[in-house]
Write a sequence for this structure.
């Protein structure tokens, strides 16, 4: 079982932001958490950017999710997200 808060499926900006912010609460349930924020509307709304310019925002939400305990991420730009995750992991060591 993998928990997925379903970012982008509620069609509600406030829910999506809250779901990302409350990743630690989902992780506390004891199941792996998948965070799929890649290029989602919530990032576009936060940054006022079109879909093709949301990779940095995706990386930021990936890091937020990682710091909150998520370990599975659905992303379009693997390189940016992998490098960000590797950077954080090295800094935590």
């Amino acid at each position: 079982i993998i928990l997925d808060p379903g970012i982008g499926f509620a069609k509600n900006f406030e829910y999506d932001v809250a779901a990302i912010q409350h990743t630690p609460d989902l992780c506390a349930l004891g199941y792996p958490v998948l965070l799929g924020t890649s290029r989602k509307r919530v990032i576009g709304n936060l940054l006022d950017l079109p879909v093709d310019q949301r990779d940095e925002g995706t990386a930021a939400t990936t890091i937020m999710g990682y710091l909150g305990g998520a370990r599975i991420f659905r992303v379009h730009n693997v390189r940016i997200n992998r490098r960000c995750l590797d950077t954080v992991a090295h800094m935590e060591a």
